[in-house]
Amino acid sequence: MADSSSEEKTEKPSAQKLRKAREEGQLPRSKDMGLAASLFAAFVVISSSFPWYADFVRESFISVHQYAQEINNPEVIGQFLRHHLLILGKFILTLLPMPAAALLSSLVPGGWLFLPKKILPDFSKISPLKGIGRLFSSEHLAETGKMTVKSVVVLVMLWISLRNNFAAFLGLQALPFKLAMNEGLSLYASVMRNFVILFIFFALLDVPLAKALFTKGLKMTKQELKEEYKNQEGKPEVKARVRRLQRQLAMGQIRKVVPKANVVITNPTHYAVALQYDSSRAAAPFVVAKGTDEIALYIRQVATENQVEVVEFPRLARSVYYTTQVNQQIPFQLYRAIAHVLTYVLQMKHWRDGAQPRPALNRHISIPKEVLKLDGENN
């Protein structure tokens, strides 16, 4: 067997590997999404609070001028500090939407996950050898490339913004204080709007890239997929789940096909086979459903609910069960026995209609040895 480490990782990560990565705190994250959301929140807050910010700055300058005249008075200094701490607190409150927006938006690619163990320091991550390896990883190279491109674009936009607005900023000093504040905040908002649009564009590119790099990092070789499937297949809980799903699928199919059957032959409880004869579909009767134990009981239940005749014929039920698959015609060796059962079913219908005496089923009819299956025989 070839070493799986030498194989190319071409397969998408399995659900188990994705789940394990999530448990270890590995999720696709976009730094640009958080930055764009934070800038957008700042733009909305500042744009909608122009008058308040103007009054805030004006009030600060006035209070500084007033308190400066009594700077040597300890009581005045205390009032000054309390006043400005109150102003600062109001200002900080207006900034809260920014980190909140950054935090919430950063969760978009991978969702929320809290792992207490991630709070503890992992000293293995500060290994020099591992650090050198990470420097040349595809993720690090991609991140370096992104940062270089973004830095160039941001510097170009910053230069354009300064060139276009430099004269306007210089002209603010000639305006009255309140008008200068309003004009300054308007210029700031205009410049900031362009940067918000730019970083939203970065984020729209970064989110799918983060997901693609995350998926690429978890890709598996074909051998890894096979080994994982074998390991999973052998677990008792997985086997039980597969059997449960198989039973559910089987019961769903039984509910559809058994009502169309002409007869259900039983063992009476361990085996059940549902037969249908439709000359337009097949030249001989064919099995539409079969099962043992729980499935057999369910076939009987569905047949009874839909007035399909249930016939107890243990030898014949086992023979049909082991020789014929679902949607397969019965073997020619069983034609005579099945014909006898179908005739009995027709006679039972006539009896229920009052057209004849109750018929008797001959359970001693011969079944050829090559198709006769006794209890315990599975082949």
From TrEMBL:
Record localization: Cell membrane
Stretch list, region Disordered: 1-26
Annotated protein name in UniProt: Flagellar biosynthetic protein FlhB
Transmembrane feature ranges: 35-54, 91-115, 152-175, 195-214
GO cellular component, one term: plasma membrane
Name of the gene: flhB
Function: Required for formation of the rod structure in the basal body of the flagellar apparatus. Together with FliI and FliH, may constitute the export apparatus of flagellin.
Species for this entry: Escherichia coli
Bias (Basic and acidic residues): 1-14
GO biological process terms held by the UniProt record: bacterial-type flagellum organization; protein secretion
Membrane topology classification: Multi-pass membrane protein
Xref: Pfam families: Bac_export_2
SUPFAM superfamilies listed in its UniProt record: EscU C-terminal domain-like
